[in-house]
Amino acid sequence: MNFHTRKWVKPQDLNPNETLFGGRLLSWIDEEAVIYAIVQLENEHVVTKYISEINFISAPRQGDIIELGIEATSFGKTSITMNCIVRNKLTREFVLKIEKLVFVNLDKEGKPLPHGKTEISYVKDRLND
Q: Model-level pTM greater than 0.85?
């Protein structure tokens, strides 16, 4: 799994328990995952379809640095499925795991659009064509 995005937990990210607000973390995950989907499907018209059970394992505190890992697990006709792990950058302690996030590729009218992808591709490989 690749961990590309790191976030520093700041005071504005905290809940009343002085730990990272779960909604803030889910927002960061959704943004990271949709960027991953857009790059993989080569289309900016991608939406979140489904997020499976979210397993919060530990609660980051102010000053912690967390990193988000996203990995594609399968491609459907119009979708891409991924999983996600969030961990503390310094301690490597798991913060959260999500087994399944599904994003759908859309046309400009918002209808599902077949993408023709079957495997992960990397921008560096596409630039050599």
A: yes
